[in-house]
Amino acid sequence: MHVTVDVKGEDTYELELEAVAGAAADGEATGDPADATPTYADLLREVELSPHEVSVLVDGRPVPEDQPVESDHVTVLRLIKGG
Amino acid sequence: MIVLPADTRETILERAREGDPDEICGVLGGEYEPDGKSRVHSQYPTENVAETPRTRYEIDPEEQLAIFERLENRGEEIVGFYHSHPRGPPRPSATDEAQATWPDRSYVIVSLEPLVIGSWRWRTESDGQFERERVGGD
Question: Does the beta-carbon distance from A81 to B105 stay under 8 Å?
Answer without folding.
Answer: no
